[in-house]
């Protein structure tokens, strides 16, 4: 049986027993969501690469020390680690006063659902992705966090509610208001987001 057919928990158990390929499978399986979440937070590919690596080093060490209890929420646990490491990064940078937000032209929507077949559609898709990314920045922090966790972190509303310490209804409400606010911004700025 191939490792990709195993559940996250089975892969974790195999890794703890010494199977390094199981961790590689887990990383490959969840890289897109976790990396996108980190990149959306820090807006710099080099920093995101470092934080992604740091996240999985912490994951590996925690698993080896027996600090993970399976509740079927491995990805949520990893995203929480990534989130905390991102916060730590910003705190360090704030103390050093050296953070730069100049590298914000990254196409965060470089995924299959935004990768059209011809070059014209691809260019239009990239422009739409950049527009959406810019629009998300106008949202209040609580709404922006919900959008990022849902669409870049791939988390359910239940997981989002647990991570942000709010009720599911509050998480759903924030997403609803985020969408309403995005529509208002699109109308105000007269932006067209269709191909």
Structural description of this entry:
This protein has 195 residues and is mainly alpha-helical. The chain has two domains: 3-96, Orthogonal Bundle (Rna Polymerase Sigma Factor, Chain: A); 118-189, Winged helix-like DNA-binding domain superfamily/Winged helix DNA-binding domain (Arc Repressor Mutant, subunit A), CATH 1.10.10.10. Helix content is 69%, strand content 0%. The protein is built from eight helices and no strands. Helix 2 (20-42) crosses helix 3 (45-64) and helix 2 crosses helix 4 (74-96). It is globular and about 55 Å long. The N and C termini lie far apart (42 Å). The relative contact order is 0.10. Mean pLDDT is 80; it is low at 98-104.
CATH 4th-level superfamily of the largest domain: RNA polymerase sigma factor, region 2, helix turn helix motif
Query: How many helical stretches?
Result: 8
What share of residues is helical?
A: 55-70%
Text of the CATH class of the largest domain: Mainly Alpha
Using the coordinates shown, work out and report the CATH topology of the largest domain.
Rna Polymerase Sigma Factor, Chain: A
Mean pLDDT: 80
Largest sheet data: none
Name the beta content range.
under 5%
- Give me the CATH architecture of the largest domain, please: Orthogonal Bundle
Shape: globular
Compressed to H and E, one letter per element, the order equals HHHHHHHH
Rg, rounded, reads 18 Å
Total domain units: 2
Question: How far apart are the termini?
Answer: 42 Å
Structural class comes to mainly alpha
Count of distinct strands: 0
Q: Poorly predicted ranges (pLDDT <50, ≥5 residues)?
A: 98-104
């Amino acid at each position: 049986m191939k490792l990709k057919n195993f559940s996250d928990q089975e892969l974790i158990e195999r890794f703890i027993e010494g199977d390094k390929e199981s961790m590689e499978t887990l990383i490959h399986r969840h890289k897109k969501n976790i990396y996108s979440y980190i990149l959306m937070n820090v807006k710099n590919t080099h920093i995101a690469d470092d934080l992604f690596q740091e996240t999985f080093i912490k994951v590996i060490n925690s698993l080896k020390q027996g600090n993970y209890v399976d509740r079927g929420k491995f990805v949520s646990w990893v995203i929480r680690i990534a989130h905390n490491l991102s916060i730590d990064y910003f705190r360090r940078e704030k103390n050093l006063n050296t953070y730069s937000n100049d590298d914000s032209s990254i196409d965060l929507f470089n995924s299959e659902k935004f990768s059209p077949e011809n070059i014209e559609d691809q260019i239009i898709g990239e422009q739409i992705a950049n527009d959406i990314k810019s629009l998300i920045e106008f949202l209040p922090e609580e709404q922006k966090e919900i959008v990022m966790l849902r669409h870049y972190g791939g988390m359910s509303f239940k997981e989002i509610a647990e991570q942000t310490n709010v009720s599911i209804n509050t998480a759903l409400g924030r997403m609803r208001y985020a969408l309403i606010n995005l529509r208002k911004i699109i109308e105000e700025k007269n932006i067209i987001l269709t191909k």
